[in-house]
Amino acid sequence: PTVMLIGAMPSAGPKPHRVAKLSEDVRELLLGLLELDPNQRWTMRQVRACKWWRLYCEEQSGFARAVKGV
Questions:
Q1: Is the dihedral of CA 46, 22, 35, 7 positive or negative?
Q2: How many whole angstroms separate alpha carbon 41 and alpha carbon 25?
Q3: Under a CB-based contact definition with an 8 Å cutoff, are residues 45 and 33 in contact?
Q4: What does pTM read for this prediction?
């Protein structure tokens, strides 16, 4: 079966993969959110405590204030 990523288009043949360079902060966040084991998957409390959230959401936007009650 073919697996498509969001925004990806099917192709007739193999193409080189594009590699995204992610900071360790983003990598930690994504791994926590995408954990297969639901008991180990991050909660919103853990997301709000991670370094990426504190640096990019709380300091740079009103988004964190909008979801504080979550």
A1: positive
A2: 16
A3: no
A4: 0.57
C-alpha torsion sign, points 14, 1, 8, 11? positive
Alpha-carbon span 23 to 42, nearest angstrom: 18
Tokens 């900071």, residue located: 23
Cα three-residue angle 51-52-56, rounded to 5 degrees:
120
- Would you state the structure tokens that stand for residue 23, as one six-digit string? 């900071």
The 10s digit of each residue's pLDDT in 1-57 is 344 445 555 555 566 667 778 888 989 999 999 999 999 999 999 999 999 988 887
